[in-house]
Amino acid sequence: MLVSVFTLGCKTNLYESGQIIAKLQQAGHIAFHGLKTADVFVLNTCAITAEAEKKSRQLVARARKLNPNCKVVVVGCASQKNADQFKDIANVTFIKGVANKTQIVQEIERVGIDVESIPSVYAHEMHATQERTRAFVKIQDGCNNFCSYCIVPYLRGRSRSRSIADIVEEVKSVNCAETVLIGIDISQFGRHTGESLTQLFEALQGIPTRIRLGSLEARVVTDELLQALTKIDFCPHFHLSLQSGCDTVLKRMNRKYTTEEFLGDVVKIRNYFPTAGITTDIIVGFCGETESEFQQTCEFVQKVGFADIHVFPYSPREGTVAYNWKDVDHATKTARVEVLSQIKLQLKDNFANKFVGTTQSVLCERKRNGLWEGYTKEYLRVYFTGDAKVGELANVAIEQPYLDGAMGKVE
Questions:
Q1: Is the pLDDT of residue 34 over 90?
Q2: Could you tell me whether strands 381-385 and 371-375 are parallel, antiparallel, or unpaired per DSSP bridges?
Q3: Burial class of residue 205, CB neighbours in 10 A (0-12, 13-18, 19+)
Q4: Please, are residues 396 and 382 in contact by the beta-carbon 8 Å criterion?
Q5: Pairwise CA distance, residues 241 & 262, whole Å
Q6: Closest-CA residue to 93 (of 47, 13, 33, 39)
Q7: Is residue 270 classed exposed, middle or buried when 0-12, 13-18 and 19+ CB atoms within 10 A define those classes?
Q8: Beta-strand (E) ranges in 123-185?
Q9: Which residues touch 62 (CB under 8 Å, ≥6 apart)?
Q10: How many other C-beta atoms are found inside a 10 Å radius of the C-beta of residue 114?
């Protein structure tokens, strides 16, 4: 059968879709990423926001347009949260949640609903297909943080980690110039297995791929961990989830650090990696956020000097602690998103300027409008001219800031 696997949401979802495709191919099916004409559509859904859940439902109609007689199998976070929202939609034949979603190959002909309990230990089935210029390798699943705004721990379960030996085996096998270690919260890696991130990095020494990390909690950044990173081919890009630059808002969010502690961790990183790209997420307009609290966030992100900020307006999520708390009005959220987005643009320009006049190793990802595009180790987006090849590294002389990154040419 022709099977289309379409993914909404995070890189962890994308990796799991790769596992589904690998299993389908192993079973003799023709399976591929993306929404293209097929006999069966496996929709790997997201429920991080109400909008993501809505898009998950709309995917079924998009699949039906490509093949009115298709079968649709729904898996992932949206069906874990509420399987019933899919059961009466035309063409949906089977619904599965988060647990054992990669086993869908054995159930693709079934009809019904099978939303299982989330496992308490990491269950790794097989390596994912890798179809991009950088490889993604999942090392952890679940989350123990229970931030007051977040639904993820209820859908993904408690944190559980993959074994270092298994991770190293896959990293060695992917054969990409860059490998990204991902999970729902990789900061919690090894907490219940007696292993640690530091031990993982030590085990990755000598493997010919540069290593990039997924999102981290700043509080796990220790000297021991940073020292281990200096001994591998590491991409000094740290995505540290801040969420707010105001201590009173952080407390309401149940984020377990202060801005002073966060800044201390940033300083520690820059002691080891002076040019590190430090990026973050900020939620604007969280319950009860005052103008003063918002201004504190604006001042703090400039003080840190982030390389980039992902700005999101707060979206109440049913099932979370904060769901019934007093919300900030939509117009205020929209205005604050615009203010912070302007600060973000200036910070991105400042970051790009740091590399002007230097030569950087850039992973070439595509060519568009006559320019190659790719990223430095620090995750600076670079547009460049010269001889290059997709999936390979190029030494690029950075000339000036350009669009959302920098312009350069191959040396």
A1: yes
A2: antiparallel
A3: exposed
A4: yes
A5: 10
A6: 39
A7: middle
A8: 134-138, 140-141, 160-161, 178-182
A9: 35
A10: 17
Q: For residue 274, give the H/E element and its range.
A: none
Secondary structure of residue 24 in the 3-state scheme: helix
CA distance 72 to 94: 7
pLDDT on residue 109: 83
Task: Report the alpha-carbon distance of residue 389 to residue 135 in Å, rounded.
Answer: 17
Q: Scanning the structure block, which residue is given the tokens 């298709």?
A: 70
Q: Note the pLDDT tens digit of each residue in 218-268.
A: 999 999 999 999 999 999 999 999 999 999 999 999 999 999 999 999 999
Distance CA 361, CA 410 (A): 10
pTM over 0.90: yes
DSSP-assigned letter for residue 209 = S
Superfamily grouping for domain 359-410: Nucleic acid-binding proteins (2.40.50.140)
How many CA atoms lie within 13 Å of 22's alpha carbon, on the beta-carbon side? Answer: 15
Q: How many Cα atoms occupy the beta-carbon half-sphere of 393 within 13 Å?
A: 13
The type of residue at 176 is C
CATH number of 2-114: 3.40.50.12160
**Phi/psi class of residue 270: alpha, beta or left (left: φ > 0; alpha: ψ in -120 to 50)?**
alpha
Residue from 401, 403, 402, 398 nearest 386 by CA:
398
**Alpha-carbon span 380 to 376, nearest angstrom:** 5
Domain residues of the chain, as ranges? 2-114, 359-410
Cα maximum dimension of the chain: 60
- How many CB atoms are located within 10 Å of the residue 61 CB? 12
What would the pLDDT profile of 153-196 be if each residue is shown by its tens digit?
Answer: 999 999 999 999 999 999 999 989 999 999 999 999 999 899 99
